[in-house]
Amino acid sequence: MTVIIKYPKQTKKTNKEFFKRKNRELTNLDWAKWAGWFDTDGCFTRQWNKQRKCYQLFVDLRLHDRAPVELFSDMFETSLRYSEGNTITPNGQHYVAKVFRAALSGPKAVWFTENVSPYLIKEAKREYAGALLEDTVRSKDFNTWTKDEVTHYLATVIEGDGSIQIKNSKNTKHFKAAIVSKSPQYLANLVSIAASKLNIKSRFTKIKSYQTKNGITDMYALYILCSRKDRTNLDFLKNLLKYKVMTLDRKKEKVQEFVTWVNTQTEKPILENRV
């Protein structure tokens, strides 16, 4: 992979200064935000260190979009890498796949995993991170999440495993954000915390099943809807823009488009029935 932004190698001295500075700068909102990315696209692994002759924890974020990976690279001071290669889709079409990557290893990876793991809502991901740390990671109780933490987490989950659509019909617009997952329990947890903390009205349903070498796999989708008539979730969309946590322009622009449009609409007055 080609190095786009290079940071020097870790040393005990630089790590000590890094941890002191970042423990002061980063807040729970930052960890909630990165938990969203790592519950969707990031991964935790162990890799063999040839020099030290031992396994080391490795934290890896790889995406086709540069912006969130570059933000990770900048915030955690690790090199940003890039590669591309020819890929064939299942229907035979050729395209160039671009991948941006930033990773943490050694003490930085341990420190990151310890801080982000309590905010991981996917139980399997959190337990795996704990196993790599050789410790039990306790999840942050849903009741103790703040509204802002939930907003930051959901924003990056929508960017990671989500999609945003705006449907135009009969002089109106309908907003739909979808979060896709193989785990119905994970989506049920999202529905619960989104409703209790942000009054978000959402639902999830099975959308398809497909055959794998291990059997049938079901896919589920959680939907967050908004329209001129039903503005229940409008405050959440406004907060996505207010906190500027979204990094993908194509998704952020759709939220902005809908919020701007709905703000120009006025509710039709309800006329009293007259006898």
Structure description:
Strands 1-4-5-3-2 form a five-stranded antiparallel beta sheet. A four-stranded antiparallel beta sheet has the order 6-7-9-8. The chain is globular and about 65 Å long. The chain has helices at about 10-25, 30-40, 65-75, 105-115, 125-135, 145-160, 185-200, 235-240, 250-265; strands at about 1-5, 45-50, 55-65, 80-90, 95-105, 160-170, 170-180, 200-210, 215-225. A hairpin with a 5-residue loop joins strand 4 and strand 5 (about 95-105). The longest helix is centred in the middle third of the chain and has 15 residues, at about 145-160. Helix content is about 40%, strand content about 30%. It has about 280 residues and is α+β, with helices and mostly antiparallel strands. It has nine helices and nine strands. It has two domains: about 1-140, Endonuclease I-creI; about 145-265, Homing endonucleases (Endonuclease I-creI, Roll).
In short:
The chain is an alpha+beta fold. It is built from nine helices and nine strands. The protein is globular and about 65 Å long.
Structure annotation, total helices: 9
* Low-pLDDT segments: 269-275
Shape: globular
| Biggest beta sheet attributes | 5 strands, antiparallel
CATH architecture of the largest domain: Roll
Head-to-tail CA distance between termini: 76 Å
Question: Spatial order of the strands in the main sheet?
Answer: 1-4-5-3-2
Which percent range fits the helix content? Answer: 40-55%
